[in-house]
Amino acid sequence: MSKYECNHHMTGFLKELPKCEHHVHLEGTLGPDLLFPLAARNNVQLPSHFPKDVESLNKRYSEFTDLQDFLNFYYIGMSVLIQEQDFFDLAWAYFTKAHADGLHHAETFFDPQGHVERGVSIDVVVRGFERAAQQAEKELGISTRLIMCLLRHLPPKDGLATIESARPYYKAGTIHGLGLDSAEKPFPPHLFEECYKAVRDSFPEVGLTAHAGEEGGPEFITNSLDLLNVTRIDHGVNSFQDEDLLKRLAKNQTLLSLCPLSNVKLQVVKDVSELPIQKWLDFGVPFSINSDDPAYFGGYILDNYIMVHTRFGFDLKTWCKIAANGVNGSWISDARKKELL
Ligand code: ADE
Ligand code: ZN
């Protein structure tokens, strides 16, 4: 299947590139090896149909049929997270793994509604993640940004209440962005106009993004830009179907946060070689390469870079351009960008 080799030298080069991650769900870094011990530690009863051990759970993770099939496991998985220490342990494990992959900057998603609806307060969640992020900055030299996502399968008024509860964290600069995730097709962007407006009006400096064009068509992307005023698109795969949209993304240098291994595991494409990466390069649409839910999809950030190389075999100059686009599309100061480039 591999058209190009990613030899030792090339792997070293990809590791050394100044990589920035813009699309990783912290709850999606929870693998079976941590899930079962946390369930035991917190006395959480997993549903009777849930696989009983690491091996059978990993096997089930290799058989996702689509986004919803994955999400059903993702929400059960996060139910073992209860204490602030659980959230810290989870995020810290991610930062150390990503650091070993040569990551310099991490913009991480989290889903507070998936915890609050189980009786875990947003304060417990944010404090645990914030502590891990601070430690990552200090001990690993990774700059970090925390992006709160709203679950689009829940009512928009629930999203508004979540934004209200997060106000102190936006004010303090602990949370830096707003995103939108979960099942895409049944819940189009227009439903969340008021939520995005609430954050925009109160915190104009906060970064806005949304999952769009993963399973939904290019109109989900266009509507996210028009109605939610996002400046970034998560996934954006289906943008390739609309040339006017590609030109618009290029003109505004709107970053797509691409997740190659995720797209294969959730059957968005059969193989990474089918992703319209060359089209984005030809149109000048910037994209970054990300892991999405690495514990579920079988690879962290470097694995995603390596997979893209085995399918597209880019030269060093193209790889440097991809990495520079990732740095420039990050929600960081110009000074930090300079440090990374
Ligand atoms: N939540 C976690 N990963 C997701 C994805 N790839 N798409 C939508 N929602 C998600
Ligand atoms: Zn995602």
What is the tally of beta strands? 8
Bound molecules: adenine, zinc ion
User: Over all CA atoms, what is the radius of gyration?
Assistant: 19 Å
**Cα distance spanning the termini:** 33 Å
Biggest β-sheet description: 8 strands, parallel
What order do the SSEs take from the amino end to the carboxyl end, as H and E?
HEHHHHEHHEHEHEHEHEHHEHHHH
Shape: globular
- Helical content, roughly? 40-55%
Q: How many domains make up the 3D coordinates? A: 1
Our count of helices gives 17
Query: What is the arithmetic mean of pLDDT?
Result: 97
- Determine the CATH topology: TIM Barrel
Content of β-strand: 5-15%
CATH class: Alpha Beta
Decide which structural class fits the backbone.
Answer: alpha/beta
As laid out across the biggest beta sheet, the strand order is 1-2-3-4-5-6-7-8
CATH architecture: Alpha-Beta Barrel
CATH superfamily: Metal-dependent hydrolases
Question: In terms of per-residue confidence, which ranges show pLDDT below 50 for 5 or more consecutive residues?
Answer: none
Keywords: Cytoplasm, Hydrolase, Metal-binding, Nucleotide metabolism, Nucleus, Zinc
InterPro entries: A/AMP_deam_AS (IPR006650), A_deaminase_dom (IPR001365), ADE (IPR028892), Ado/ade_deaminase (IPR006330), Metal_Hydrolase (IPR032466)
Domain Adenosine deaminase: 18-341
Protein name: Adenine deaminase
